[in-house]
Structures
1.
Amino acid sequence: MPAILEARDLVKRYPVGPRAVDALRGVSLTVDEGEFVAIMGTSGSGKSTMLHLLGGLDRPTSGEVVIDGVNISRLDDEQATLTRRAKTGFVFQFFNLIPLLTVAENVALPFVIAGESWAQHRARVDELLEMVGLAEKAAHRPDQLSAGEQQRVALARALATEPAILLADEPTGNLDYTTGTEILDLLWDSSERLGQTIVLVTHAAHAAAYADRVLVVQDGAILDEIALGRRRDHEARPLIARLAALGL
Ligand SMILES: Nc1ncnc2c1ncn2[C@@H]1O[C@H](COP(=O)(O)OP(=O)(O)O)[C@@H](O)[C@H]1O
Ligand SMILES: [Mg+2]
């Protein structure tokens, strides 16, 4: 399978006053088309930094990111932004919905940002809301939805333009276990049915267990890689055993 996402020796140093934090210390990785990869690590290990760089939301101090054949590190800010919008969809821990827009308008946002009319994409928005089980809530505002429903809206929005890569940063981190599982099941469905490439950041083994492959991140570096293969049961125990063998 061809690589759809590639990171080469990513370093990220945040200046903090007179000192600096080395959030990433040379991360290289490849994600194949259609692969579901989890990035797992404790709080502060550099997961969000890594995801932001992989999706072009931020730039590395050094190193390169190639998304679907485009080396975004060599683009100016405007071109990088256009590439990011065209090729990636993001889901965040705190949903990041626009409170004044309806559910349907939130899902249509990527089209509006791309300068297209929302009416033009009505059928696509309906299809996305159907997919996440929220067809009846199209006219609601985000604050009229449960947390799990809000995250389903965010997922529908992230998938709206059929991005090459879906990047999710702790998408279940603000949800209870059962509601979180519903989101993970939807991610899995998009992987299985649409062949969606997914990079999921999580600190939870039960979430990472949905992935084909788990990258374990510690202190800004990839400590190890655990190949789980494609499994339908999402059973976390094999992953937990492998993590324990690594002393984690
Ligand atoms: N904007 C920033 N400025 C300074 N330090 C940051 C910034 N963002 C993250 N960091 C630091 O970089 C490290 C990695 O952070 P982060 O990528 O958010 O980790 P994770 O998502 O795994 O919790 C942490 O030490 C964090 O404090
Ligand atoms: Mg984080």
Note: Strands lie at 3-16, 19-32, 36-40, 62-67, 70-71, 88-91, 165-169, 197-202, 213-218, 221-227.
2.
Amino acid sequence: MKVNVHFFVNDDGTGLTAGNGASNQLEQRDVFQKADDLVYFANQYMEDISSNKQLNQIPWGADTTSAQCVGLRFLLDEVFIHRDSNMDLINIGGHNDQYVGINYRDAYNILAVDIRRASGYAPRQGRYMVVRSFDQQLIVHEFGHSLLLEHTHFGNSNGDDNCFDTPWYKWEYDRYGDGSVIDSKKTCWNVSNRDASGTDLCTPNGTTVINPHPCCDSSTVNNNVMTYSAAAQSGSIAALTPCQVDIAMTELLKEKCDLIAAIEPICKPVSAHIGYKPNTDFSQDCSWTFYLRGSTNETEHRISYQKLQPDGTYSPFLDSDWLPGRAREERVVVGDDPYIKHGTVRLPSNSTYIMTLTTRNNCDTDHYRVEFTTGACDVGDQDDSPNPGPFHTEEFQAYPNPSNGPITLEYGIASSAEIEIYVGSNATNSFELIADISGYKLAGSYHHQLDLSFLPNGAGTIVVVVDGYPFYKQFVKQ
Ligand SMILES: [Zn+2]
């Protein structure tokens, strides 16, 4: 299922996303990674719950069914930052129409917004959800509503979800322990069973308790994704039932077939996207960043630029060739001085370009294009050049070279960074992530012995990716 994720900033393009939202305010540069994480964790949750069974079916009069595989995953399609102060804080159902209209109809839309009095909502059978946090269960729960799933915790006809295998949880209880039964929230959603005032609901203060709080009994643990319970939030406990998945999949194939990226359990589809901040002005800015993280499942990516010629045709200008791993960021600087060092790419001023990101894995490929015209800039004249990052280029070594055995890799970083290390053969152009030495690293110097026995003899490349920026070292295996 293709999904777009939408973020909102002030009308003038400044500010954090989601206005005053407590849980989801983000710097603009961080939203691309956040969208990526949202999809990753929601997918992980759907995978995890596929081995879990609905609890407490018998005590609540439901048919007993086994664990149900959830055959659904999200694929991130595009990430948007909109200028719209009105979306800082909205009421349920408010001000969404323009973001789910014709422009975004080829993907399901997730709007990250501060909502009043709800963590999220999604209209029944709709093509969007609005969420105020990025919780994995919330995303899957709201998507469930879009696929006709109802809450399972209301024991009344309005809440009937047409499934005989989901328990209807309904209770009344003596909230204050004073002998009067109160029909309160019909769901156990509080792990500690304490209410907002701190009262332990399992041992109310009064003496003539008619019914203790139902959540005090393990038979009321509701682990269904379509409830609000604490158990439903955990991928290791939560579940959907066979009936629910049947309803959801039927609805998906009937009403949302056009949003499906691929039906393929083994080969994951790839996507490509080029994002940038809403106030980016290509004709005025002398440097900016393209965020390429809105692309998933690729094992290789390629970035190319074509330049508009005086005769109106485009000719190749720059081509990265295939690079290992996921696309991350491209820092563009504009200027005619060929010795400009910062930035991952330098583009001459007063010219028009088409930038193309192509992604692929062993069974699928996708691409995305952005066209823009640079202004009269020379970033070489400016003092406020972007920080080159924490990598110590002078410490970056690989030896012995050539080598007929392992190679020692040395590098250093001035501050903590996310490090990915790839090794590959130039002839086959396939690169392996060396997982055990990749990951989040603190500032310092690092030495690793790389086993090259999996590579053919000949020229190869070590790639150290530091917070998304690659550094290359060539070597020869003998
Ligand atoms: Zn709901």
Note: The pocket of zinc ion is lined by residues 141, 145, 151 (CB under 6 Å).
